[in-house]
Amino acid sequence: MNNANLGLNFWLTAWNWQPSIILGTIAVICLYLYGVGPARVKYKLADEVKGSQVFSFLLGVNIIFWTLFTPLDRLADDYLFTAHMILHLLLSFAGAPLIVLGLPEWLLMPILRNQVVRRLGKFFTMPILTGVLFNANLWLWHAPPIYNAMLVSLPLHIVSHLLFIITGVLFWWPILSPMKDVLPPLSIWKKLAYLFFSDMPMVLLGAGLTFIPPLYTRYIYAPRVWGLSPETDQQLGGLLMWIPGSIFFIVIVSILFLQWMQAQDAKQRVDESILYGDDDEEIEIERENGQAKLV
Fold first, then answer.
1. Can you give the residue range of the structural domain that contains 163?
2. pTM
3. Which of 24, 115, 126, 261 has the fewest C-beta atoms under 10 angstroms from its C-beta?
4. Is residue 283 part of a domain?
5. Chain-centroid distance, C-alpha 61
6. For residue range 203-239, what is the model confidence (pLDDT) as tens digits?
7. Nearest one of 259, 125, 120, 134 to 185, comparing CA atoms
8. pLDDT: which is higher, 290 or 104
9. Do residues 219 and 80 touch, judged by C-beta distance below 8 A?
Protein backbone atom coordinates (compact mmCIF):
# COMPACT_ATOMS: atom_id res chain seq x y z
CA MET A 1 0.00 0.00 0.00
CA ASN A 2 1.35 3.41 -0.97
CA ASN A 3 1.95 6.06 1.61
CA ALA A 4 0.42 9.51 1.10
CA ASN A 5 2.71 12.49 1.16
CA LEU A 6 0.66 15.07 3.03
CA GLY A 7 3.29 17.75 3.09
CA LEU A 8 3.03 21.50 3.05
CA ASN A 9 1.58 21.51 -0.46
CA PHE A 10 -1.46 19.50 0.69
CA TRP A 11 -2.22 21.82 3.61
CA LEU A 12 -1.87 24.87 1.37
CA THR A 13 -3.91 23.67 -1.60
CA ALA A 14 -6.52 21.17 -0.33
CA TRP A 15 -9.07 23.82 0.65
CA ASN A 16 -12.72 23.36 -0.23
CA TRP A 17 -13.80 26.24 -2.47
CA GLN A 18 -17.32 24.93 -3.09
CA PRO A 19 -19.67 27.93 -3.57
CA SER A 20 -22.35 26.29 -1.41
CA ILE A 21 -20.04 26.47 1.62
CA ILE A 22 -18.75 30.01 1.09
CA LEU A 23 -21.98 31.64 -0.13
CA GLY A 24 -24.09 29.71 2.36
CA THR A 25 -21.96 30.88 5.28
CA ILE A 26 -22.01 34.50 4.09
CA ALA A 27 -25.81 34.38 3.65
CA VAL A 28 -26.40 32.94 7.13
CA ILE A 29 -24.14 35.48 8.82
CA CYS A 30 -25.65 38.42 6.90
CA LEU A 31 -29.22 37.36 7.73
CA TYR A 32 -28.37 36.94 11.40
CA LEU A 33 -26.59 40.29 11.69
CA TYR A 34 -29.48 41.99 9.89
CA GLY A 35 -31.93 40.36 12.31
CA VAL A 36 -30.09 41.35 15.49
CA GLY A 37 -29.18 44.78 14.09
CA PRO A 38 -31.27 46.82 11.61
CA ALA A 39 -34.37 44.57 11.79
CA ARG A 40 -34.35 44.63 15.60
CA VAL A 41 -34.32 48.43 15.61
CA LYS A 42 -36.74 48.89 12.70
CA TYR A 43 -39.42 46.53 14.03
CA LYS A 44 -38.71 47.23 17.73
CA LEU A 45 -38.09 43.57 18.47
CA ALA A 46 -35.85 44.22 21.49
CA ASP A 47 -34.04 47.07 23.19
CA GLU A 48 -30.69 45.32 22.98
CA VAL A 49 -29.02 42.10 21.93
CA LYS A 50 -26.76 40.10 24.20
CA GLY A 51 -23.18 40.13 23.00
CA SER A 52 -22.76 36.57 24.29
CA GLN A 53 -25.50 35.36 21.95
CA VAL A 54 -24.01 37.08 18.92
CA PHE A 55 -20.59 35.66 19.79
CA SER A 56 -22.03 32.16 20.26
CA PHE A 57 -23.89 32.18 16.94
CA LEU A 58 -20.97 33.54 14.93
CA LEU A 59 -18.57 31.11 16.60
CA GLY A 60 -20.86 28.17 15.79
CA VAL A 61 -21.21 29.20 12.14
CA ASN A 62 -17.46 29.72 11.83
CA ILE A 63 -16.68 26.32 13.35
CA ILE A 64 -18.93 24.74 10.73
CA PHE A 65 -17.39 26.83 7.94
CA TRP A 66 -13.76 26.14 8.82
CA THR A 67 -14.51 22.47 9.40
CA LEU A 68 -15.80 22.14 5.83
CA PHE A 69 -13.50 24.69 4.16
CA THR A 70 -10.11 23.59 5.49
CA PRO A 71 -8.10 20.52 4.31
CA LEU A 72 -9.79 18.52 7.10
CA ASP A 73 -12.67 17.88 4.67
CA ARG A 74 -10.31 16.58 1.96
CA LEU A 75 -8.47 14.46 4.53
CA ALA A 76 -11.82 12.98 5.61
CA ASP A 77 -12.95 12.29 2.04
CA ASP A 78 -9.81 10.77 0.55
CA TYR A 79 -7.63 9.38 3.32
CA LEU A 80 -8.85 8.89 6.89
CA PHE A 81 -12.09 7.74 8.49
CA THR A 82 -10.76 9.26 11.72
CA ALA A 83 -10.76 12.70 10.07
CA HIS A 84 -14.37 12.13 9.01
CA MET A 85 -15.32 11.42 12.60
CA ILE A 86 -13.58 14.58 13.83
CA LEU A 87 -15.49 16.53 11.18
CA HIS A 88 -18.78 15.00 12.27
CA LEU A 89 -18.18 15.78 15.94
CA LEU A 90 -17.32 19.40 15.15
CA LEU A 91 -20.52 19.86 13.14
CA SER A 92 -22.89 18.17 15.59
CA PHE A 93 -21.31 18.78 18.99
CA ALA A 94 -19.69 22.20 18.55
CA GLY A 95 -21.25 24.18 15.72
CA ALA A 96 -24.87 23.10 16.17
CA PRO A 97 -25.29 23.78 19.92
CA LEU A 98 -23.51 27.13 19.65
CA ILE A 99 -25.96 28.19 16.94
CA VAL A 100 -28.92 27.31 19.20
CA LEU A 101 -27.37 29.27 22.08
CA GLY A 102 -26.96 32.27 19.78
CA LEU A 103 -30.63 32.57 18.76
CA PRO A 104 -32.49 35.25 20.77
CA GLU A 105 -36.10 34.45 21.63
CA TRP A 106 -37.33 37.81 20.29
CA LEU A 107 -35.73 37.09 16.91
CA LEU A 108 -37.69 33.85 16.50
CA MET A 109 -41.06 34.99 17.87
CA PRO A 110 -42.20 36.92 14.74
CA ILE A 111 -41.64 33.79 12.66
CA LEU A 112 -43.48 31.55 15.12
CA ARG A 113 -46.57 33.78 15.13
CA ASN A 114 -47.55 31.99 11.94
CA GLN A 115 -49.67 29.01 13.01
CA VAL A 116 -48.27 26.66 10.35
CA VAL A 117 -44.68 27.51 11.26
CA ARG A 118 -45.44 27.14 14.97
CA ARG A 119 -47.01 23.71 14.50
CA LEU A 120 -44.10 22.56 12.37
CA GLY A 121 -41.68 23.93 14.97
CA LYS A 122 -43.42 22.08 17.80
CA PHE A 123 -43.48 18.87 15.78
CA PHE A 124 -39.82 18.90 14.74
CA THR A 125 -38.57 19.86 18.23
CA MET A 126 -40.39 17.05 20.06
CA PRO A 127 -37.66 15.34 22.11
CA ILE A 128 -38.51 11.84 20.94
CA LEU A 129 -38.40 12.93 17.31
CA THR A 130 -35.20 15.00 17.61
CA GLY A 131 -33.37 12.13 19.28
CA VAL A 132 -34.57 9.65 16.65
CA LEU A 133 -33.71 11.96 13.75
CA PHE A 134 -30.22 12.66 15.11
CA ASN A 135 -29.33 9.01 15.58
CA ALA A 136 -31.10 7.81 12.44
CA ASN A 137 -29.10 10.34 10.42
CA LEU A 138 -25.91 9.16 12.11
CA TRP A 139 -26.56 5.49 11.39
CA LEU A 140 -27.81 6.18 7.86
CA TRP A 141 -24.66 7.92 6.66
CA HIS A 142 -22.42 5.27 8.19
CA ALA A 143 -24.09 2.43 6.31
CA PRO A 144 -21.28 1.31 3.93
CA PRO A 145 -23.23 1.58 0.63
CA ILE A 146 -24.52 5.07 1.45
CA TYR A 147 -21.20 6.21 2.92
CA ASN A 148 -19.24 5.02 -0.13
CA ALA A 149 -21.78 6.66 -2.47
CA MET A 150 -21.54 9.92 -0.53
CA LEU A 151 -17.76 10.03 -0.98
CA VAL A 152 -18.05 9.99 -4.79
CA SER A 153 -21.15 12.19 -5.19
CA LEU A 154 -20.93 15.92 -4.54
CA PRO A 155 -24.73 16.40 -4.17
CA LEU A 156 -24.89 13.57 -1.62
CA HIS A 157 -21.86 15.02 0.13
CA ILE A 158 -23.58 18.41 0.49
CA VAL A 159 -26.82 16.78 1.67
CA SER A 160 -24.95 14.78 4.32
CA HIS A 161 -23.30 17.90 5.74
CA LEU A 162 -26.59 19.79 5.78
CA LEU A 163 -28.37 16.93 7.54
CA PHE A 164 -25.65 16.66 10.19
CA ILE A 165 -26.04 20.40 10.90
CA ILE A 166 -29.86 20.41 10.82
CA THR A 167 -30.33 17.29 12.94
CA GLY A 168 -27.64 18.63 15.29
CA VAL A 169 -29.55 21.88 15.80
CA LEU A 170 -32.82 19.97 16.33
CA PHE A 171 -31.11 17.58 18.73
CA TRP A 172 -29.82 20.36 20.97
CA TRP A 173 -33.08 22.32 20.91
CA PRO A 174 -34.80 20.48 23.81
CA ILE A 175 -31.68 21.12 25.90
CA LEU A 176 -30.76 24.70 24.96
CA SER A 177 -33.96 26.23 23.54
CA PRO A 178 -34.10 30.03 24.04
CA MET A 179 -37.92 29.94 23.95
CA LYS A 180 -39.72 30.05 27.29
CA ASP A 181 -43.31 29.52 26.21
CA VAL A 182 -43.17 28.40 22.58
CA LEU A 183 -40.82 25.47 21.88
CA PRO A 184 -39.49 25.53 25.48
CA PRO A 185 -36.58 23.45 26.79
CA LEU A 186 -37.17 20.33 28.85
CA SER A 187 -37.08 20.24 32.62
CA ILE A 188 -33.76 19.20 34.13
CA TRP A 189 -34.73 15.58 34.80
CA LYS A 190 -36.22 15.19 31.34
CA LYS A 191 -33.00 16.61 29.88
CA LEU A 192 -31.01 13.97 31.75
CA ALA A 193 -33.23 11.17 30.45
CA TYR A 194 -33.14 12.62 26.94
CA LEU A 195 -29.34 12.72 26.85
CA PHE A 196 -29.01 9.23 28.34
CA PHE A 197 -31.28 7.52 25.82
CA SER A 198 -29.98 9.60 22.90
CA ASP A 199 -26.39 8.63 23.68
CA MET A 200 -26.98 4.87 23.57
CA PRO A 201 -27.33 4.46 19.75
CA MET A 202 -24.18 6.53 19.19
CA VAL A 203 -22.27 4.42 21.71
CA LEU A 204 -23.41 1.22 19.96
CA LEU A 205 -22.36 2.53 16.55
CA GLY A 206 -19.01 3.75 17.85
CA ALA A 207 -18.33 0.44 19.59
CA GLY A 208 -19.30 -1.49 16.48
CA LEU A 209 -16.97 0.54 14.26
CA THR A 210 -14.19 -0.01 16.79
CA PHE A 211 -14.35 -3.80 16.83
CA ILE A 212 -15.46 -4.88 13.35
CA PRO A 213 -13.18 -5.11 10.26
CA PRO A 214 -12.85 -2.07 7.93
CA LEU A 215 -16.11 -1.30 6.13
CA TYR A 216 -15.42 1.54 3.74
CA THR A 217 -13.80 0.85 0.37
CA ARG A 218 -12.32 4.34 -0.04
CA TYR A 219 -10.26 4.08 3.15
CA ILE A 220 -9.23 0.46 2.58
CA TYR A 221 -7.51 1.31 -0.71
CA ALA A 222 -6.50 4.90 0.06
CA PRO A 223 -2.80 5.80 0.35
CA ARG A 224 -1.81 5.40 3.97
CA VAL A 225 -1.42 8.49 6.14
CA TRP A 226 0.91 8.67 9.15
CA GLY A 227 1.34 4.90 9.09
CA LEU A 228 -2.29 4.18 10.02
CA SER A 229 -3.65 0.92 8.62
CA PRO A 230 -7.32 0.74 7.54
CA GLU A 231 -8.07 -1.29 10.68
CA THR A 232 -6.42 1.21 13.03
CA ASP A 233 -8.00 4.15 11.22
CA GLN A 234 -11.52 2.78 11.65
CA GLN A 235 -10.82 1.80 15.25
CA LEU A 236 -9.70 5.34 16.07
CA GLY A 237 -12.75 6.77 14.33
CA GLY A 238 -15.07 4.46 16.26
CA LEU A 239 -13.36 5.36 19.53
CA LEU A 240 -13.79 9.07 18.76
CA MET A 241 -17.53 8.56 18.35
CA TRP A 242 -17.74 6.26 21.33
CA ILE A 243 -15.57 7.80 24.06
CA PRO A 244 -15.22 11.59 23.46
CA GLY A 245 -18.87 11.73 22.38
CA SER A 246 -19.92 10.01 25.59
CA ILE A 247 -17.61 12.20 27.68
CA PHE A 248 -19.23 15.28 26.15
CA PHE A 249 -22.65 13.97 27.15
CA ILE A 250 -21.39 13.23 30.68
CA VAL A 251 -20.11 16.82 30.99
CA ILE A 252 -23.50 18.20 29.92
CA VAL A 253 -25.28 15.85 32.34
CA SER A 254 -22.97 16.99 35.16
CA ILE A 255 -23.73 20.64 34.42
CA LEU A 256 -27.47 19.93 34.43
CA PHE A 257 -27.17 18.08 37.74
CA LEU A 258 -25.31 21.01 39.29
CA GLN A 259 -28.05 23.35 38.04
CA TRP A 260 -30.63 21.11 39.70
CA MET A 261 -28.67 21.17 42.98
CA GLN A 262 -28.48 24.99 42.84
CA ALA A 263 -32.22 25.19 42.18
CA GLN A 264 -32.93 22.90 45.15
CA ASP A 265 -30.69 25.04 47.36
CA ALA A 266 -32.50 28.20 46.27
CA LYS A 267 -35.88 26.60 46.94
CA GLN A 268 -34.74 25.48 50.38
CA ARG A 269 -33.58 29.00 51.29
CA VAL A 270 -36.94 30.38 50.19
CA ASP A 271 -38.78 27.84 52.37
CA GLU A 272 -36.56 28.61 55.36
CA SER A 273 -37.12 32.34 54.92
CA ILE A 274 -40.87 31.81 55.01
CA LEU A 275 -40.65 29.40 57.95
CA TYR A 276 -38.60 31.73 60.12
CA GLY A 277 -40.50 34.87 59.13
CA ASP A 278 -37.67 36.85 57.53
CA ASP A 279 -38.28 40.24 56.04
CA ASP A 280 -41.01 40.09 53.35
CA GLU A 281 -38.90 41.93 50.81
CA GLU A 282 -36.01 39.51 51.26
CA ILE A 283 -38.40 36.57 50.93
CA GLU A 284 -39.76 37.92 47.67
CA ILE A 285 -36.29 38.47 46.25
CA GLU A 286 -35.22 34.99 47.34
CA ARG A 287 -38.37 33.46 45.89
CA GLU A 288 -37.75 35.12 42.54
CA ASN A 289 -34.16 33.92 42.50
CA GLY A 290 -35.23 30.40 43.34
CA GLN A 291 -37.83 30.35 40.63
CA ALA A 292 -35.34 31.66 38.10
CA LYS A 293 -32.98 28.83 38.91
CA LEU A 294 -35.73 26.25 38.80
CA VAL A 295 -36.78 27.15 35.25
1. 13-256
2. 0.87
3. 115
4. no
5. 11
6. 899 999 999 999 999 999 999 999 899 999 999 999 9
7. 125
8. 104
9. yes
